[in-house]
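User: Run a structure prediction on this.
Assistant: Running it now.
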Amino acid sequence: MNNQADIMRMAESDPDVGLIHKDQTLSGMIAMFPEKEKPAMNDVVGAMAVYVGEAIEVQKEALPSEPPVEWAYRIRVPGHNHDMVLWCAQATDQPPLEIFEGNKPDFQWVVGVDALLDYTDPLSSLADLIRMLVTATSRSTAILDLETNRWHGPGALASYFLNTQLEPPSEMLWLVQSSVNQDDSLFTLYTKGLARCGRRDLKIQGLHQSQLESAVQLLNAIAAQSVESPLSQPPTTVEIGHHAEVRLREPDTESEPKTDNAVPQEQRAALLVLDAVEETLPTNLLLQLTKGAAALWLPSRDQARRGQLARLTLPHFTEILMDEQSYQDATYLVQTSLTDGQAREYVWTNVTTQNEQGFVGELIEDPILECGPKGGDRMIISVEAAEDWRIEAGTTIIAPENIDLKLIADSTPPDLEGESQ
């Protein structure tokens, strides 16, 4: 369905629907319907109403477009600022097999929704949209994000969206994609998905293959920062780490390098180009990231999620730490934060044991903040103060993100069982 113009007109004509950014685009989601019979509109809307806890107003039939749809309706959902378009069509494509742990169902129908995300909190808006779709389609096990072409299978849905203890990572809002120039020597990375948040998508060009991993970290960090607090109009300088700055500028569509697998023409003018301050490319920063000699700041929401994930998975860390047979000569690290006025710094402690007070060890190195402890000082970190952890055993790295989140996920949240939010 292509309802961008229609929904934007509806939103702009209603002064009470909330803030709309002039460059914001729709977010489209498709849920694979697991039943053989065509889903009825009344049944889908009724299931959505159970999730919301209030009646959903079906306003009028919407005009169908490609792909051919069986039905399409404009709906108004309580708690959402803008009207949505809900539609149903026959399934023309199937999800990839790798997103399923067992046998893949044979999906014959899809239910889609086109909606505007909340400009002030697009992540919560996206998560709520996916939860509502899963509920409305008899607990669909596959959701396609049309803006990023990212599939969410049973594992991702349970871990990221149906888990009431942990919100999804902000990177679910966008995807970093790549293109390569004609002689396959230099790469361009660009984001796709920020426009639906009312933010400008980003790109960095002229990359060698060895720089790609660090460049992805860089783009993700700036994208997350822009979602939390929209960036100033370009050209603008963004501080993304301690003494680490990058400049964002408008693209020069005439002189930007051409690529075989090019950035879509319609997207080029919307991209902000990433440069280092007074450099053509942030080469030094990328090199530091590759060597692990630089760290990028996380927006407060992402840092809060990281800390929450670390504390939820700490039992796995403790189990390995206290089991002398687990890993011989491993290094056990726990991160905590130090504060000095408004400034906050995250530091690592080399942990040797755990007692009733918390994790005991030595601070690895001198903090930048001069607010007390120094490298080598004894530290006791309570469970509540742990912000991250990792275990290094040779080439084996164990960290919170390596733990199967389904082990800690409450995959049947109360609102999906029929209770109101």
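The longest strand covers residues 343-355.
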